[in-house]
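Worked Example 4.2. Read the sequence first, then its structure tokens.
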Amino acid sequence: MLKSSIPFKETNYFSNIIFDYLEVDPNLQKFFNRFPTLENFKFQLEEKQQHFSSEKREILVNRLKHQYQTVEASILTKNNIDLLADGKTFTVVTGHQLSLFTGPLYFWYKIISVINLSQKLSEEYPSYNFVPVYWMATEDHDFAEINHFRFEGKLIQWNRDSSGAVGHLPLDGLKEVAEVFSAHFNGNNNSKKLKELFEKSYIEHSNLTEATRYLVNELFGEHGLVIVDGDDKGLKKLFVPNLINEIETGFSEKYVNNTNRKLEEVSQEYKIQVNPREINLFYVRENYRDRIVQIENKFSAIDSDWSWTEKELKSEMEEYPERFSPNVILRPLYQEVILPNLCYIGGGGELAYWLQLKEMFESQQVPFPVLLLRNSALLITEKQSSKLQKLDIKLNELFLPQSEFKTLLAKKYSKINIDFSQQKNYLKSQFKTLYDLAEQTDKSFIGAVAAQEKKQLNGLDHLEKRLLKAQKRKLADKLDKAMDLKNQLFPNGSLQERVSNFSEFYQEYGHDFKNQLLENLDPLHQEFLIIEF
């Protein structure tokens, strides 16, 4: 296996705020706590140690043991759960939706990033313990985002009506999905294992939370991964003071809006990922999850008969904390309140909205975690690698937009020079002489000289484009092969990791697929990886 990398900035797929974060731009430093270096984790764990009580640890361990009653945890995972009771144990967390069969590849990159970072921290700080954690987004309600995945370009989709939190969804209809999925397999031993894994996950469990916990535990439990479901009354009870504070003061809207203004002052190019509401909480009951709003002195859940005075709402929070679900603004705070966490690992969009939250965290006296951009990778098979060499395509060229990529190759493959830069420079030098002449004789001619220069340069541009178009027709077979290969590696013009499912590679490589990712994904190597199998 070969591995190389290119800077994220050269991929054309990430935002300016992420580029500036990776470069530790001084203008961004007030929006995060500590940059992810091994040295900085020492200060992060010392800070978190002071703000996370033994009482919280005891509750966390008890609730995790309760959550794991329906799956067979590995010895390493059981040990990690027990270790969370120890004041010298900390977590490294990533979170993700309950995507069908893990969804796109980047789910794997997130999980492997937390596993590998935990290992690195254990080696660097042997007197402490570090536990990799996957936070299941069980309370999410956007079913359309999670009900499908792609296998070798084919859409595998679960169609059903959905309401409320997706984690509560029963698994009706997934037996039929399993049959559609397995019909595309090649029949080897690896594909048989995939079929068995899908069926055991989605046919033998009662809801999507249990299915996802089983699936992720089967895939990563041997590495000590601990799976956390925040939709838990005992854990939410720890968050009740913050829930009440949200109702009393609206702190999340106030501080996030303030941060958003400051981010826009730093750069107008920064896209604000999330905008807070007056109340950033959902109310959850069976088949129901919707926003809580305040109208005058009454609080209510949208499109329902549930309503409360402030006193009644606080009482409901204290007695039934499981009925209150933090939205995208408050979910990170909830996570950091209930976990002894040091670092959150996420994608570019996630880190961008975490950068909106530090001031809100400070208002609640909760340490803000280290933010680490998850590993990103392009996986290239040996056959595809061979084609790249035959077609004389460099790895960094693959990241160009389609039209630029095709033009670059047409010029590279052409036996004639399509680049008229030399002629244009010569023309400009000739016109410089005319400008000098006009300056010395009659300055009114300068406009006429400029117009003639523009006309002739436009003429060269037109000729260059016509020649390029003709060469593209002449080289169509070779260019089509190159474009077909690029489309395989960048399906639908997107990054492979945002479209393709792990099953494509598992069918070919089996367990070695995961082993190679574990070996090659270095979470602190902040560049885009190209891994050639």
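Now turn to a second chain, presented in exactly the same format:
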Amino acid sequence: MTSRITTPSPADSPADDSVGSRIGWAESPVQLRLAFALAALGAVAQVTGVAVGVVDGGPPAAFRSFPLLLVLAVLPPVVAAGLAVGRRPLMGAGVLVGAALLGPGRLLGDLQFLVDPLVVSRPEIMVPTSLAPLHAGLGLWLLLAGHVLAITAGVMAANRAGAPYGTPYAAELHDDGRQRSAVGLVAAVVAAFGLQLAPFTSGNAFLLAEGLIDSPWLLRFALLAAGAGVVGAALVGTATARGVAVGAVLGVAAIAVPQVGAGLWVGLLGAAPGPYLALLGVVGLAVSVWVTTRPRRESDPVATAHRVAGVLGVLSGVAAIGAATTTVLAVEGVEQETFSNRLFLPAGILVVALAIPLLFPRTAAAMRPAFAVSLAAIALAGMSTLDAVVTATGVGAPISTGAAVWFTAAALVFAGGATITGLFAGNAERAEPQERPLDLVLVAPLAVAGLLAIGAFGLPVVKARGLVPPGIWAEFRLASLGLLLAVLTVVVAVALTPVSRPNRAGALLLGCAGLVGVRALEYPLTSARALGSVPGPGLWLSLACAGALVVAALMVLSRR
């Protein structure tokens, strides 16, 4: 049996750093250049079709959607051409392939205009105002032709665009780079599931809001084909994998972004979790593919765990931001102002900011402790949001939940996965235990920070007459679980600091300071929930605790 040479040759060098991905536009195959031309022509046909009119004499769109549809149509060929001009035609070809994978679903969905335009839920194209029959217009044929051209361009760009093996363009990934990411596949399944759900909620009798089960048969096949395209993008294992992931993001965006806009901007319509899940999932797929296809000389379980934890952290943070900006509860279809999910905004920003460095080997190990403790902020905000949902839905009123609940669940699940992966990375990173002398100078600030943390999370941040916030010792509710987890995180981190390496201990304490800072932001973000609210003792203790943690971290780092 012959052994494989680990040093990649020009014909099989890894990922997009290969010779094939760095060739010039003139050296790329003629078939690839023709594919770029067809993709550009397809984008022009799609835009022209919308401008001419998909439905003959039909009602107008619900909002000014043409600029949005124009951008979504031209992005795939523009991005692909930009990569080709930048001496990355291999990745540009992948963008065309990824966008084409969503093409059959989009084509079948638009064919419904030919069968019965009244059952098409496309407010960015038209909103029916009566049950009078509608007929397809000239623009529909241009739109369908655009989809066919985009699919054809993807087919021509696939399989090395016809270039024979052995040529520079035909470079493939090294075997190590062909490994599919389990996280990427899960993210693709999430995106495919989101595409099957209702695009928005509707109170308009002439505009349906149906998912896979309730849709007409042609739209069912369209949704299934679109979902299969996203999953197919996750299974690509060649040197075009990164480009395919980018193309899949653009393809899903062309479907989901107008749905998000309709739910946010059109009267009688509301946001639904489907398009948000689709966008979140496909972005997670792209991040996972870009991380797992980085060229590497040998398998490094610690580096892999860091990257997976970083991807999950980014997904959790993005989901948290989604939970902070969408509806939690609605009464008879009317959105209700809530405050329980507002902590998700600083929590999501904190987690994303600390998760991104985990994607890069030079910063991953140093930032991992701070990232690990910051994940408790997701639980803090998530338990508060779920507590409000459980309390509201238990009163018997006609209350329904909004997209924020789905985002909350996604953020908690991703945070749990990131925590497990981060703990694995920490255990694998450590060498054999070493005796470390206890630094008595650090005992005082660490003890003060631990005691302040107990009060910061155990006492209310906001006080008002008639307001009964959740607590740890009294009024223990679902939200109290988040408070309890947060205070335990800080106390355990403080206890581990004296026996940890100085740089890791400093990051651990700074991450705890960020967690306590999220708790302190509860007052400015939620004080409007009660009249006459004033700062509670938890606010002042949170600020003092955050300050003590920062001081302790600086002391630890200065004594390296």
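Notes for the reader: The beta strands are 55-56, 135-136, 200-202, 269-271, 329-331, 334-335, 399-401, 462-463, 534-535. The chain has 19 helices and nine strands.
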